[in-house]
Design brief:
- By secondary structure, the chain is of the alpha/beta class.
- It has a single domain, classed as Spore Coat Polysaccharide Biosynthesis Protein SpsA, Chain A (Alpha-Beta Complex).
- Helix content is 37%, strand content 21%.
- The protein is built from ten helices and nine strands.
- Strands 1, 2, 3, 4, 5, 6, 7, 8 and 9 form a nine-stranded mixed β-sheet that branches.
């Protein structure tokens, strides 16, 4: 299973993450059956705590540490550093479900002729430790996949070439940069291949939860681009009103912008 280049590039962004980054790096180090196939980059935003001391404890990890312009910028730096066939963004405080995730992904990719865009299942970990198994809401086809932006980016495995083709993450988005990326992939003609296997455990209560109104505004901006015909706009507005409720729908429709 050896490759001339890494098969998987795992990107972890961090900023003052000494309390959470250790288990993330350990979950990559423990992967079995993928020897010499995995590289991991930590893109650190000039942490002032002990984050880098922990990173240096993992010989497999390569890292940079410098100031950046936010999450999208850090993701893009990771994309530019990556050399693997496929890229995975595994954040601090998120872990792979078990030590066979990457080996099973490799076998899945081989069996499905190198799909471009893979989405797996995930567990959401609550503050009390409970885990909820979730799968992407992808029962609808085409543009309607994005009526409800429920794809966990940690459970996405994407061909690096496709990520580079669409130009990376938009620095204008503070929360929904991943949703914007899925929209760009869809508009570039790429289809999702579902892998019905849990891949990651991610910590609930992240940025999109803490800054819900910014997330709503970001999602609205992406949906405006996706809903490019009167019929799509009508169906989308009906869906938003039913799903989000009248009050949240008004916020979605307002198009307000938010400073960082």
């Amino acid at each position: 299973m050896s490759q001339r280049r890494p098969f998987f590039s795992v990107i972890t962004i961090s900023l003052n993450a000494e309390a959470t980054i250790g288990p993330t790096l350990q979950s990559v180090a423990e992967q079995r059956g993928v020897d010499a196939m995995v590289e991991q980059w930590v893109v650190d935003g000039a942490s002032q705590d002990g984050t880098l001391d922990i990173v240096r404890q993992f010989p497999h990890v390569r890292y940079i540490s410098e100031s950046d312009k936010g999450i999208s910028d850090a993701f893009n730096k990771g994309m530019q550093l990556a050399t693997g066939e496929y890229i995975i963004y595994l954040n601090c405080d998120d872990i792979f479900c078990d030590n066979r995730v990457l080996a099973d992904l490799y076998q899945f990719i081989m069996a499905h002729d190198y799909p471009i865009w893979i989405v797996g299942r995930w567990y959401e970990r609550q503050p009390d430790g409970r885990r909820t198994l979730t799968k992407p809401r992808l029962s609808l086809a085409g543009w309607s996949l994005f009526l409800h932006p429920r794809i966990c980016h940690q459970a996405v495995v994407l061909k690096l070439d496709a990520q580079q083709e669409i130009g990376g993450f938009d620095l204008n988005f503070k929360v929904a940069m991943d949703y914007d990326t899925w929209a760009k992939l869809y508009q570039a003609g790429y289809n999702i291949t579902l892998f019905d296997r849990p891949l990651v455990v991610y910590a609930g209560g992240g940025l999109s939860t803490r800054h819900a109104e910014i997330a709503l505004a970001d999602h609205s901006a992406v949906k405006t681009r996706l809903r490019d015909t009167p019929l799509k706009r009508l169906i989308g507005r009906m869906y938003d009103q039913l799903h989000y409720g009248r009050e949240s729908w008004r916020k979605l429709s307002s198009g307000s912008s938010y400073a960082r």
